[in-house]
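Re: that chain you flagged

S.,

Sorry for the slow reply, it's been a week of failed gels. I finally had a moment to sit down with the sequence you sent. For the record, here it is as I used it:
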Amino acid sequence: MKKMLLLFALIACALSQSNPPPKYYSFAVKRGWVSNECTWTIHGLWPEYAPNAWPQFCQPSRYGEYNENLLVQWFPTIQTVWPPKTIWLHEWMKHGTCTKMTLTEYFGKAIDLFGNLPTNCCNYTDPDCKSQQCLIKYDLNFNFISC
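Prediction finished late last night. Pasting the structure tokens below so you have them in one place:
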């Protein structure tokens, strides 16, 4: 499975070589039930060069191999703020490898952004805790742009 995912990533990367450079980052959080509590969690972080247009499945070995144990060790809160852990490999392969960040930089940045969410974007209530998503835009230096 990992070999097939890697092959797909390499093919997608080769096809995406003509993409323009990213103009900003999108950071998505979602609201849902986690451990019987209605809460916000991380959905993902990815570079974009236009709305709904992003590079994906870039060169995984260029910025470090995926290591779940390292993530849990470096970021004790990751399992709480970014569940389920089965999504981590997907987010790293599809988006993280296109950020020019290492594995720990990518996940660390996402956790840092999550800890500093702009209140004007995610400050609404949902008494039924239906799955909602909030998409936040940051410039390439991770300064808040808009939601």
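What I noticed first: DSSP finds six helices and four strands in the chain.

Talk soon,
D.
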